[in-house]
Amino acid sequence: MAGRGFRPVYHPAGHDHALRHALQDLRTGRWAAMARLLDETSDWSAWTRRTQVLATVAAGTDVVRIWRAEQPESPAAAVMHSRVAVERAVRAHRSGHARAGQLCQEARAACHEAGDRSPADPVPWVGLLALAALDGPRHPAEHRAAPPAPMLPPGPWGLLAESEKRHPHNREAHHRMLQFVYARRSGPLSEAVNYSHWAASTAPVGSALHALPLYVRVERYRRERGHERALDLHWVAEDAVREVRRALDTWFFFCAVDEASLLDLNHLAHALFGALRFADAARVFEALGPYYTTLPWAYRTARPDDRALAEEVFLRARARCLGD
């Protein structure tokens, strides 16, 4: 895929061609391919990832409601209902919609219903973690539980523990927890740094949680609103290089790259490029194939909302590493 004329592709399904087909079916208002895909999904990692991606499309439609009406006893339909409800609540919160509070309550109820229907499923608990990050300073007692280790903040640790019981080291659960830590207070990211290092240190070899500290490093840069040169200096610092090497050596070299998150792969390629480890970055770019995500590349531009600029930065970095 190297060479001039290469254009990257953004697609939420990435290498998951079965998910791509289900998304196409979903966009036409049909739910059968989605139901079939979820029925064939046999591990919690794929289940969590696929339900999340499906919900981002389904949230703008009535397809899941129609599915539930036609198959009211389907546990998968109940889980997708909770996914859609959470996605809508998150979007309403971000936009400051007047019904954001009501949608959050409805989503919480949908998660509890899905959890009752599918007791072994981690996704309803992941949804509750996502909703916890929307509570702001009024966190209920459930969201102010004592942490499991020193240097960690109070938070919805009970919700995380329920997810961990069902699927240890669930990638999305820990990213949702990280979002809670971000939202807990503004200012320095020391709590987020501590959390990401704790999550990575407890994860087994091959876990995507080893890439979590890279997200916090990008978030720190985003908040400081630095420029490209400052970002390059940021990634060659000794602690940054150590985090990049750990993600490469304990996650990337052991994971099934076709099943890996495109965001994780892009964060790793971005970090390796910034750390001047071009040969290692080339391996990640090759694993990405034709796919890319706008983040974190957009933060290397003057206008992070401009997708075209993010694509240009991605292409320059890719060409430098692959020798195009």
What does the secondary structure layout of this molecule look like, with pairings?
Layout: H1 17-27, H2 32-40, H3 44-58, H4 63-70, H5 75-95, H6 100-117, H7 123-132, H8 157-166, H9 171-184, H10 190-201, H11 212-224, H12 228-235, H13 238-250, H14 262-274, H15 278-288, H16 307-322
Helix pairs in contact: 1-2, 1-3, 3-5, 4-5, 5-6, 5-7, 6-7, 7-8, 7-9, 9-10, 10-11, 11-13, 11-14, 14-15, 15-16
Describe the structure.
This protein is mainly α and 324 residues long. It has two domains: 11-185, no CATH class; 192-324. Helices cover 62% and strands 0% of the residues. The protein contains 16 helices and no strands. The protein has helices spanning 17-27, 32-40, 44-58, 63-70, 75-95, 100-117, 123-132, 157-166, 171-184, 190-201, 212-224, 228-235, 238-250, 262-274, 278-288, 307-322. The longest helix is centred in the N-terminal third of the chain and has 21 residues, at 75-95. It is globular, with a radius of gyration of 20 Å. The termini are close together. The mean pLDDT is 92.
Looking at this protein, list some descriptive labels.
single chain; 16 helices; mainly alpha
Tell me the major beta sheet: none
Number of helices: 16
Number of domains: 2
Shape: globular
- Give the overall pLDDT as a whole number: 92
What structural class is derived from the secondary structure elements?
mainly alpha
Helix content: 55-70%
So what's the oligomer here? single chain
Which band does the percent of strand residues land in?
under 5%
Q: How many strand units?
A: 0
- CA radius of gyration is 20 Å
What order do the helices and strands follow?
A: HHHHHHHHHHHHHHHH
Distance between the termini: 10 Å
The parts where pLDDT drops under 50 for at least 5 residues are none
